[in-house]
Design brief:
This protein is mainly alpha-helical. It is about 50% helix and about 0% strand. The protein has helices spanning about 1-10, 30-35, 60-65, 65-95, 100-125, 130-140. Helix 2 (about 30-35) crosses helix 4 and helix 5 (about 100-125) packs across helix 6. The chain starts with a helix and ends in a 21-residue tail after the last helix. It comes from Candidatus Mediterraneibacter stercoravium.
Length: about 160
């Protein structure tokens, strides 16, 4: 059967794709970037089904949250936004390693993400091992392995 597949493939015309080189341009702020799915305005192109997707409705459950739950959601959303921008910049820098403006922005985002993650870990629970290491640096005598303080990702904890 391998020979049959090979013969069939020999008779096919292969397509070659071309992707234009992305240039550094105008950027969305982190709120808009998370909503549109890209930090780069030039990449925010029409999608055939986008008009059919209903806007998110305000949840009644949101209004019933305690102040601590609201703070938790706000901090978690901030982490998601910062992390999204960080990932988009990392992908851009993978193909444009000499783009100094992108590198400078990435350095700022990394510093901000570390700060917000640290604040979240202090207030609620650590999200990464780096956050735990930071907690142990501040409290060397701590005997807490803090993962059990927060919900596991599959338990539906999100913004």
């Amino acid at each position: 059967q391998k020979g049959v597949v090979f013969v069939e493939m020999q008779n096919m015309h292969l397509a070659i794709t071309s992707v234009p080189v992305q240039n550094w341009g105008e950027l969305y702020d982190q709120d808009e970037a998370l909503k549109t799915g890209t930090v780069f305005k030039d990449l925010d192109l029409p999608f055939f089904a986008a008009e059919q997707v209903p806007a998110a409705a305000s949840s009644v459950m949101e209004s019933l949250k305690s102040p601590e739950e609201k703070e938790f959601s706000e901090k978690m959303l901030e982490i998601q936004k910062i992390s999204f921008v960080m990932d988009d910049l990392r992908l851009y820098l993978d193909t444009h390693p000499d783009e100094q403006e992108a590198l400078t922005m990435l350095k700022d985002i990394l510093k901000r993400r570390k700060q917000v993650m640290s604040e979240f870990a202090s207030r609620f629970y650590p999200l990464t091992m780096d956050c735990m290491a930071e907690l142990y640096e501040r409290e060397p005598s701590s005997a807490c392995y803090c993962w059990q303080k927060g919900a596991a990702p599959w338990e539906g904890v999100y913004c």
